[in-house]
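Apologies for my clumsy wording, but can you show me some protein sequence, whichever is easiest, together with the matching structure tokens, please?
=====
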Amino acid sequence: MKTLLALSIAVRNLWLLALVVMLVLVLDPGWGLYEATAEAAGGSERLLRGALALTLVGVLGEHLLGAVTRRRQGALAKALLRLQPGLQHVGAIRILIRALETANHEVVDTVHQELVRLSGKDLGRDPGPWLQWIQRLEEISSGRIQEQETPSASPKVDGEKDG
């Protein structure tokens, strides 16, 4: 895969260099390059068609490379989420935990329901147990502490209910 990536970078750099050369030839800063190149290419029309073909092939190549890269990144992201299912929504969970601190009862109820949906746990409406839970989850994922093997042996965080 590294070889394919290096090859694609080299081809892209070569294409960009050819575009710069073609731009200088077509814009001709007064050096007489356009006329000489058009004559060598077999005419002005042929030179411009070549420049257009070079541009289109490069743009299509960039699009294809981007699609392959996005597909690969998507597959890597899905694999990471399968390895760490609890961290799928850590950013969203942290924002929701901060929202639990609001005084509006309706907002707290809605946020609590969303936290339960995202985490699969019901730790109540107090942000304290949620913060402890998310910090423990992050410590486990970073390898700072080991996850206990049996769920019954793990101590409950304050306010955590079975579920």
In short: The chain has two domains: 2-83, 87-153.
